[in-house]
Fold this protein.
Amino acid sequence: MYTGFHKFGLEWSPDYLKFYYDGALKRTISNTTIVSDAVEYIILSGGILGWDEGDIRNATLPINEKIAYVRVWTQ
């Protein structure tokens, strides 16, 4: 069932990762031992959301997603 579009964001620096959902900051990781400083590539994945306690047998399948755009920039 289509319920609208959402925006996912990631702000990545050598010191932290900040994850956003619809413009709201949801999580910050500032452990520099797990923040990658290697060259990375974007992979758009159709991860399945809505599992009941992590059990895929309780997910509503099939799950579809539509990606309207991807924007990447550096400062």
